């Protein structure tokens, strides 16, 4: 999950009915045909089970609608306007409480990815392989960006890309195969090969590894 405005994570909302701090939660996906979205990525909900709104809500909903449910107090970011959110159970929304620290980390990862994708077009002329490596080594990055990055790898023809890729665990084997192919081409162009015993780079024609002295 990514939120555009991290400052909402610093907001403190106090439930006016029970004086407890409201929990910052991810908004549920908007139902198709609902028309109106929440207009926010997170909102603040009073998840206190002793909150009068919640305690009295069960009876209210039973009387008015004849089904099981209650209300939780909710406020949108930047607003003190109180909304009553209908919930079907005690545990509703408890699974979508936002961890601000994890959210900040995710945001940071995402903005790094975005910058790297934006830099792909110019990184070759700037001789900057960093965006390419960032995307290749980021398992959470979107596949399109990573595939584009791998295709640039060959053009950089830079042997220093090999170690980080070899030390990375890929979740997608297709991407790993593309990387392997790019590395094979880069090695060939540089008249190098990887020693099958110690993985160090050596001359393509070498009969004996310079590093581990193994016979090839
Ligand atoms: Zn409350
Ligand atoms: Zn070796």
What's this, in brief?
With 216 residues, the chain is an alpha+beta fold. It has 6 helices and 6 strands.
Q: DSSP strand (E) fraction?
A: 5-15%
Q: Total number of helical segments?
A: 6
How many distinct domains?
2
Sheet having the most strands: 4 strands, antiparallel
Q: Report helical residue fraction.
A: 25-40%
Distance between the termini: 50 Å
Poorly predicted tracts of residues: none
Mean pLDDT: 92
Radius of gyration: 27 Å
Unique ligands: zinc ion
Spatial ordering of strands, largest sheet? 1-2-3-4
Topology:
Blueprint: E1 23-26, E2 42-45, H1 52-65, E3 70-75, E4 83-87, H2 100-123, H3 130-136, H4 143-156, H5 162-166, H6 173-189, E5 192-194, E6 201-203
Antiparallel strand pairs: 1-2, 2-3, 3-4, 5-6
The chain binds zinc ion (2 copies).
Residues 195, 197-198, 200, 209, 211-212, 214 line the site of one zinc ion (ZN).
Description:
The protein is of the alpha+beta class and 216 residues long. It has two domains: 6-96, no CATH class; 107-203, no CATH class. 38% of the residues lie in helices and 12% in strands. The strands form two sheets. A four-stranded antiparallel beta sheet has the order 1-2-3-4. A two-stranded antiparallel sheet has the order 5-6. The mean pLDDT is 92. Bound molecules: zinc ion (ZN) (2 copies). Residues 15, 17-18, 20, 46, 48, 51, 53, 73 line the site of one zinc ion.
């Amino acid at each position: 999950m990514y939120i555009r405005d991290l400052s909402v994570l610093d907001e403190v909302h106090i439930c006016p009915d029970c004086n407890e701090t409201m929990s910052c939660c991810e908004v549920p996906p908007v139902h198709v045909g609902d028309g109106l979205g929440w207009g926010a990525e997170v909102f603040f909900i009073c998840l206190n089970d002793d909150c009068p709104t919640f305690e009295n809500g069960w009876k209210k909903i039973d009387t008015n609608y004849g089904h099981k449910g209650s209300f939780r107090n909710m406020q949108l970011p930047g607003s003190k306007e109180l909304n009553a959110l209908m919930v079907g159970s005690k545990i509703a929304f408890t699974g979508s409480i936002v961890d601000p620290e994890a959210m900040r980390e995710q945001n940071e990862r995402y903005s790094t990815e975005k910058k790297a994708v934006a830099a792909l077009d110019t990184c070759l002329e700037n001789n900057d392989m960093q965006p390419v490596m960032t995307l290749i080594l980021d398992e959470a990055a979107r596949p399109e960006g990573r595939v584009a990055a791998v295709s640039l790898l060959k053009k950089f023809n830079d042997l220093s890309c090999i170690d980080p890729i070899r030390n990375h665990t890929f979740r997608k084997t297709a991407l790993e195969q593309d990387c392997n192919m790019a590395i094979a081409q880069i090695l060939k162009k540089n008249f190098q090969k990887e020693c099958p015993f110690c993985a160090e780079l050596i001359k393509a024609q070498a009969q004996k590894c310079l590093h581990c002295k193994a016979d090839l």
